[in-house]
Amino acid sequence: MQNYIIKRIWSALVVIFVVSFITYFVLMLIPGDAAQLILGTDASPDKLAELRNAMGLDRPWIVQYLEWLGGLLRLDFGKSYLYSTSVLGLIIDRLPVTASVAVLSILIAMVVSILLGTVSAIKRNTAIDYFSRSVMQIGSAIPTFWIGMLFIIFFGLKLKWFPISDYSPLSDGLFVHLRSLAMPCTVLAIGETGMMLRSIRTSMIDTLDQDYMDMARVKGLKNKTIYFKYAIRSAMIAPINVIGMQFAKLMGGTVVVESVFSLPGLGRLLLIAVEQRDVVLLQGIVMFITAVVVFTSLVVDLIVMLLNPKIRIRTRGE
Amino acid sequence: MKKSMNKSRKKWNVSLAIGTVLILAVVIVCIVSFIYMPHDPIEMNTTLNFLRPGANESYILGTDNFGRDILSRIMMGSRTVLLVGVVSTAFGAVIGIILGGFAAMSKNIVSSIIMRFVDGMMAFPGILLAMMLVLVVGRGEKGSIVAIAMFIVPTFARLVYSMVLDTESMLFVKAAKSYGITKRRLFKKHYIPLMATRLITQFSSSIAHAIMVETSLSFLGLGIQAPNASWGLMLNESRKYFLTYPYLAVAPGIAIVFTVLGFNLFGDGLNELLENGKGGKR
Amino acid sequence: MLKKVLAVLMSATFVLGVAGCGSSKTSDEKTTETENTGDSTKDTLTIAYTTDPEGFDPQRTAAISTLEVTSNIYDTLITCDADWNIIPDLAKDWTISDDGKEITFNLNEGVLFHNGREMTADDVKYSFERLQDAESPKAKMYANIIGIDVIDPYTIKFTTEKLDVDLLDSFAYPWTAIVPEEAADNLKTEPVGTGAYKFVQWTPQESITLVRNDDYFGEKANIENVQYKLIPDMTSQLAALMVGDVDITEVTADQIDVLNNTDGVKGFSKPQNSIQILALNQENEYLSNEKVRQAIAMAIDKDEIINTVVWGNGTKIGSHLPVSSPYYVDTTDVMPYNVEKAKALLAEAGYPDGITLSLKLPKTYQTHVDTGTIIADQLSKIGVKCNIEIIEWATWMSDVYTDHKYDMTVVAHSGRLDPYNFLSRYKSTSGDYISLLSGDVDDLLDEAVQEQDEAKRKEIYAEIQKILAEEVPCVYIQSLSKFYGLNDKVENFEIYPIDMLNLKAVSFS
Q1: What is the mean pLDDT of residues C186-207?
Q2: Which of B43, B45, B49, B244 to mutate to test the interface with C (most CBs of C within 10 A)?
Q3: Which residues from chain C sit within 8 angstroms of residue B65, using beta carbons?
Q4: Which CATH superfamily is B16-30+60-274 part of?
Q5: Band (B3; pLDDT cuts 50, 70, 90)
Q6: What are chain B's partners, defined as 3 or more CB pairs within 8 angstroms?
Q7: What is the pLDDT of residues A48-103, one digit of tens each?
Q8: Does A138 touch chain B (CB under 8 A)?
Q9: Taking the domains of chain B in order of start, what are their residue ranges?
Q10: Among partner residues B123, B208, B219, which is closest to A290 by beta-carbon distance?
Q11: Contact C445, C452 (CB under 8 A)
Q12: ipTM, interface predicted TM-score of the complex
């Protein structure tokens, strides 16, 4: 097992390295120029050349890449062109927002999925099962911003239950914080639940089918005990993978929701960087998000491994 | 006693049925769009703009802010959706399958490198990768297809890789190998048929995913450009009129939901079919 | 197991919390400002915006949205009121020499920068030199100033090389803000000026906070705090206005009526000192042919554009000056809308089968995108096929404006008090993204800027406008209006002919 953990961590590091390479390379290909962005409208060709030289933009890109990589290792992501401040600083400022949104959405989705998934698995192929499955299927097919806008108009404007454009950080108080995130997180959760539900339901069905479940029934244990104490525990193992994946996906995928609900998160920062061609910022954010994703999946893998006795014994080949 | 054995007979199930119906509906609309559309989808009739659905019998679903017929635009949009959705997924799938298969069968350092690369690509959340690629390749149809194809690749690569490895350990393959079968023949004759159904399922789900990403790209202004009619673009254009003319968002939204749903259900149904066919859990 | 329990507990708390909050209809928002309960002691003006400014350095930016904010943090020597009249600001009066090449300003005394130091003529000199240096986007505009002399701490003299009758106007623009040398390096993120509002904080993509300068040399601002809120989505902006989260936001023309009919809010619509044009790149092989350009001009139905894009809230124009300019003459009938004639012209030019051109539209300006879409449709009717590309502003600036890599584009020009500034790019030597390569207005422009007699000057500009209308280096579409949604309680909100937003005059009723 020791071996496996080490292997896994090493693998994650390699992936991060590959990611950094891909990121830098792809973004190097972008037409358009940072120097131009800084100088703006009336920039003359020689001024541009001067600035490019000063910024080191005219060196061979492998050199620039290595320099950037070196910076990353020192946790220096460079300085944003647009905002003239440290990229890492900008990211850290926004991280709590995106993280809150991601965590909260996953939680909501988890609760709903576990409840519905369990019920569906137990009452397989009945009306409830089909109903919940179809509702969730539809939910995951709906374009996020569509639902978002509907929410804003209905819950925000008409009912005035939730703030439309105010984001309140945790420091303002838990309830207020949650209230400002309620709409965007619910919207995201609707999309998430589809996948999670499927996974939990399948896993639950599998678990319930196991022999030891029948044993439990024969022993005369109450249904509730069976389901909650035994079934869920083992049923959750496989879905944890899915949940981890979803969380990771969310870290990068909140752009749309953040745009619609005016949340100052990483997604929007990314969009601005893309639109304004702030390459340094872009590289920093992409690197950061993917690193988080890789890290998360590493953690998830390890957790799954810890929880699942089977894998602990089996050695994995690559 | 395993309960699941009881339903192993079904060849058809609800998901598959509904999914197929929806997909066929979109395909039919698309085909019809080449033959007949109530109006020219990009023709503007600014005096007749903002017609509500049902207000004018010539424009069943109403008109948008430029007086363009929504129904015709939806029909035209079906072409884009299928084009971008299917083509990009196809590209991505083919590249992914080749990469994954090659890596699985090579088992040398090259294989490791390829799979690391795939892992790297997989680490990028879809939208992120798509956004970056669009920046490089440019927006519009071509850009979207390339961008989306790129993030479909790792899914298929991984899938094929693990399936090939799994299959390899099966007895009959070992037997075939002992007869001296060539790698190519092995792949073609044995692996692919086994993987075919799983691949088709994944293909279907990936198309659904691709369509969702295209919608997001168009929403962010990075996808299909005006005046072409893509559903994602139509949704984006309806944003500014959401408060005053909300009906503009209804048609394209429903179209997207149905299509994505269709592909998802199809994939699901197929999956279920597989599970049942094999008489138990995998 | 513990994990599971914890997860369930947390989610349960969340669900209950949300439900609890939802059912108690709290009407007042949390934290610092904004009361939307009709309380007359409202002390914060909340303004919605969609894109972050480029920092707050007035001499390092050309973005209108940035200047609108900086015009409240800094002051200029002079400014103008809503009716185009020049009024004193940091300078209390001024004299212009007879030959028009020298202008002397007398500054107000006791004006303090936000860091406590008094502003003097040295600061003015410093600021203008900064304006002229290589990193300043507007340096070209001030190249004519060859001498800046500090006569005494409150008197400063500017000398120009050539006679420019509009010299005075150039001191009113927001980029001529007076800045303190000691703070100059960080103005982008920590602006220090003399203005009616002091900078408090800029949280990128979230908000900008200003607070009233109680040591302001002039009439102090009415409202104590100003908060800019970033709301990227237009519908969310409108929704925020309607629930009282913001007091001012930009809207589109169709929403004016809705706003006027809704309680608590009102619409504001006024013609702006701005024109919308379809710029044509004369370096393109087709567009270099005057007949082709004229054909395009005649194929465009400006009325349709105005009705569809801005619901009729615009005025057709024929040349490069807005209707509100004192020098404006009506040239709309020089190239009237006539599809048949347009087709004929195109054939005469040698392209009876039509041509294809690219049309680049700036994504951030929906009005231009919509206009461009309609133009593409109109042009298709005479055989000109347009390939539309919707690009970001940054891309537009680099590709279209700087590199001239475009065929056609739709954009607006605004914020200039004198016609020369609007028109100088038409000199065939200007190297600007649009100009009149035939050179027919070169001499006239030189004459105009030196002509001190106003009546004669008007004649010259009239002549220039006619030539532009005939040779159509661009198709001039309309004079634009600006549309805002305001909270009912907002008073004295105005728009100005230059890129500024005068927040100190705004008050709550």
Answers
A1: 90
A2: B244
A3: 308, 370
A4: MetI-like (1.10.3720.10)
A5: very low
A6: A, C
A7: 677 677 666 677 777 778 877 888 777 778 777 777 788 888 888 888 888 888 88
A8: yes
A9: 16-30+60-274
A10: B123
A11: no
A12: 0.72
Pick from A149, A165, A179: which is nearest to C231 by CB? A165
> Do A15 and B123 make contact, defined as CB atoms within 8 angstroms?
yes
Q: b or e along A177-204 (b: 16 or more beta carbons within 10 Å of the residue's beta carbon)?
A: bbbbbbbbbbbbbbbbbbbbbbbbbbbb
Q: Which residue of B has its CA nearest to A292?
A: B123
Nearest to B266 by CA among B216, B206, B210, B214: B206
Contact between chains at C14 and A233 (C-beta distance less than 8 A)? no
Q: Which C-chain residues 234-253 have CB contacts (< 8 A) with chain B?
A: 234-235, 238-239, 252
Instruction: Give the residue from A30, A33, A42, A270 with the most C CB atoms within 10 Å of its CB, the best one to mutate.
Output: A42
- CA dist C301 and C5 (Å) reads 68
Q: Chain A partners of C228 at a C-beta cutoff of 8 Å?
A: none
CA–CA dist C183, C186 (Å, integer): 6
Report the pLDDT averaged over residues C55-74: 87
d(CA C58, CA C66): 8
Identify the segments of chain A with pLDDT beneath 50: 41-42, 312-318
Please indicate if any CB of chain C lies within 8 Å of the CB of B34. Answer: no
SS (H, E, C) C66-126: HHHHHHHHCCCCEEECCCCCEEECCEEEEEECCCCCEEEEEECCCCECCCCCECCHHHHHH
Q: Which of C186, C214, C87, C219 is nearest to C500 (CA)?
A: C87
Read off the tokens for C362.
């700036």
Minimum distance, in Å, between the CA of residue A196 and any CA atom of chain B: 14
How far apart CA A301 and CA A244 sit, in angstroms, is 9
Nearest chain B Cα distance for residue C147, angstroms: 46
The predicted pLDDT at position C90 comes to 92
Backbone angles phi, psi at B12, to 5 degrees: -135, 150
Which amino acid does the sequence have at B148?
I
Residues of B in contact with C307 (CB under 8 A): 46
Looking at residue C402, its pLDDT comes to: 76
Cβ count near B58 (within 10 Å): 10
Among B191-195, C233-237, C362-366, name the one with the lowest average pLDDT.
Answer: B191-195
- Chain B residues whose CB is inside 8 A of the C252 CB are 240
What's the predicted TM-score (pTM) here?
A: 0.78
Tell me, letter by letter, the H, E, C secondary structure of chain A: CHHHHHHHHHHHHHHHHHHHHHHHHHHHCCCCCHHHHHHCCCCCHHHHHHHHHHHCCCCCHHHHHHHHHHHHHCCCCCECCCCCCEHHHHHHHHHHHHHHHHHHHHHHHHHHHHHHHHHHHHCCCCHHHHHHHHHHHHHHHCCHHHHHHHHHHHHHHHCCCCCCCCCCCHHHCHHHHHHHHHHHHHHHHHHHHHHHHHHHHHHHHHHHHCHHHHHHHHHCCCHHHHHHHHHHHHHCHHHHHHHHHHHHHHHHHCHHHHHHHCCCCHHHHHHHHHHHCCHHHHHHHHHHHHHHHHHHHHHHHHHHHHHCHHHHHCCCCC
Q: Does A149 touch chain C (CB under 8 A)?
A: yes
Q: Subunits that touch chain C (at least 3 Cβ pairs < 8 angstroms)?
A: A, B
Average pLDDT of every residue of chain B: 79
